[in-house]
# Entry
Amino acid sequence: MDLSYDFQFCHKRHAGDVYARATYKTRVRRMRVFCLGLAVMALAIPVRAAEHNDYPTAARADYVFACMKTSGETRHALEQCSCSIDVIASILPYDRYVSAETVLSLSQVPGRFGAMFQSPEQARSAIDDLRRAQAEARVRCF
# Structure
């Protein structure tokens, strides 16, 4: 038996194993990078959803209760009012919504104090944005 032949055969097989190991390691690295990428994307999606869903539950509930008082206290009114606040939340950021609601409630106060909130351009702009969002909600939900 020729030992050099066996040595060459073993050497070739060993070289193939090294290549196979290197290829396997490359595949594992690629798979890790791919999984890491998927994980990052999966974590980014809820963040985006949270950006669009910045209204606290209590604020949504207050809106729905007030809406149901004016629309009737039925299951159908509940669904319409819930839809309405969802549409408003998709159009108007929460801080802008709070500003407009505050200006609206304070502008109803009689006297000089209430008059202060009726004229400023910033207050008018916030109220106009809220009214537009409410009109869109009315069209989509009622």
